[in-house]
Amino acid sequence: MTTSGRFTLPSEENFAAETKRLADLWGADAIRNSDGTHLDDEVKALGKTIYSAYFPSRAHNEWISMHMDETPQVYLLTQRVLAESTNAGIKLMATFYEEQLQPNWDADPKKYWEVVDRTTGDVVDPGQWEYDREAGTVTIHDTRPMHEYTVSFLAYIIWDPVEMYNHLTNDWGDKEHEIPFDIYHERTRKFVMGTFAQWLHDNPETDVVRFTTFFYQFTLIFDQQHREKIVDWFGSGCAVSPQALDDFEREYGYRLRPEDFVDEGCYNSAWRIPRQPQRDWIDFLSTFVRANVKTMVSMAHEAGKEAMMFLGDQWIGTEPYKDGFEDLGLDAVVGSIGDGTTTRMISDITGVRYTEGRFLPYFFPDTFHEGNDPSIEAWDNWRKARRAILRSPVARMGYGGYLSLAAKFPKFVDAVTRIADQFRELHEKTDGQGAEGELNVAILNCWGRMRSWMAYTVAHALPNKQTYSYYGILEALSGMRVNVRFISFDDVLTHGVDEGLDVIITGGPVNTAYSGGDIWNDARLVSTLRAWVRAGGALVGVGEPASVAGRGDRFFQIADILGVDEERFQTLSVDKYFPSVTKDHFITADVREGETIDFGEAVANTYPINERVTLLSAQDGEVQLAVNDYGEGRGVYISGLPYSAANARLLERALFYASRRERDYAPFSSSNPECEVARFPQTGWYCVVNNTDRAQSTNVRTGEGSVQHFDLEPNGIVWRGL
């Protein structure tokens, strides 16, 4: 087995000897500088590929401090203020962090700001309000008593949000705040391109420019107590400027309102059903961003260097799953590995020569401190990622942060040594190709391919009570023996259902981008899916799929396929009868006696639409799991499914059952849900992985019908020839 390569090591100043030791131990063939540090000459002389982090839109205060009107801007929504008389005053920054944000008084507030009566939704005429720059307030006249009012105002972002986070996490004290800048302004754009050209000239030893990232930060806004206030990994609101707004109007023929950004306080969350102005802004922004990315990539190539993009921080506008990404000429994408879903978010990107995963934990003092064992997180992170890598491999791995912290923890150092060896062995056995998928599965929602592996997410790989019941579906799929794609409702309306699909999964909470909202009022969508399932397709609905109110006794518009609907207090006078729960069924065959299935947050008042529905789980008068024959096809309803080994197994069996492929399930399936099997016919191997930190045993039936027994050590992986 190869014991070196495919590994990127972070380093820092005055740490050359330990860098060499750990590079040898972990088999690193590339070294990058840690955030805010530089590599020693002794490290550069080790003969490794040198990555250099490059920040196109920050780390040059000497420039931007003289041009503070060219920092990125964002529309902010003030707190609601109740008018108790005919006048009301609103303090703009009452709920925001003044060291991060500063109102833009330079561009005419009467043109670029908006005051809204939130009780009626009406825009207040600019003649009815005035602003006081010194006091930082807006005063509204002729208000309606007992109505609430807000101000949507442009604000400069005067402290880079990621550098701010690092500053606070590492307690950098008096270190100068890094001010971001916006290349939409011509003179700043010229400065950025000129500075980069000089940097390329001054850094001949750099092999790979690791752009971290490009120009616009995902939405990350802090409150007056330095806490995260608005976090949206997809948010494109921190890229606004009066010039961009004016150019948008000229190009698209209409003017964006401040409300198109603050969105009634929702800030265009990816969970919101996307509106046309939001889609147009994403298109406008990505067109501009990509043109300038392409310029910087070409400059790097002309200097004889590779161009790598970090999928994080200022990634907004690059849109790696939007058509045309391959035209940028990037050599690689690297991203943070949080779990299987975020691994696939990176590894499934096309249009680059290779992808790289930055594993956790990050070498920061919040994890690497006395009394903590970082190896626990390292193994947990690797187990989650490994499931996905077996299906869609990243070509390289690495870590980030301060190596001097990690070096103090021998148990962690040993864990990374073993993880890196497993990663390289995996590549040797598979030739860098993913395991065979046996079913073709599509996730159907408003966003489709553009948000591949990004559905059901708020912040990168972070849990959320309202989302985990849906996100668990993606996490299960990320390491499952199926091929996954993402399609939109518009795709189905325009092109129908791809004949190569076996299963479609759709759903989410009502009135979200994932359940679809009013799109289900289009009869063409419902009839297309009905015809496809009746002809033999399989449809899985999760949560409140195809849910639209106001349609009489039908809330789930595909209830006839799923066999389940939701009572919305409109048909309480119509009795609902639950058939008996079927205890022995293919889908639940691996649920052990006395074991309770975790369906996450309950979906209230779901019921079977008739007694022909096969009910597999129900509690407190609510359906949790049901199946329904529909012509030659089948529907499956699941109320929610947080990720666990047991739930991944349940979903996998549901997909095979729904597509009438039960006979194909047993071969190369593990008898123990805590272990999974991945098969690689192209190289003649299959492997069994232990997805726990405890020893496990399992049996695997091979294609010839024989049964192989495996005893796996904690975190273990065993390879066998086919």
TrEMBL record:
Residues 668-719 form the Lacto-N-biose phosphorylase C-terminal domain. The keyword Transferase applies. It is an enzyme of class 2 (transferase). GO terms for molecular function: 1,3-beta-galactosyl-N-acetylhexosamine phosphorylase activity; 1,4-alpha-oligoglucan phosphorylase activity. The keyword Transferase applies. Coiled coil: none annotated. Its EC number is 2.4.1.211. Residues 440-662 form the Lacto-N-biose phosphorylase central domain. This is Lacto-N-biose phosphorylase.
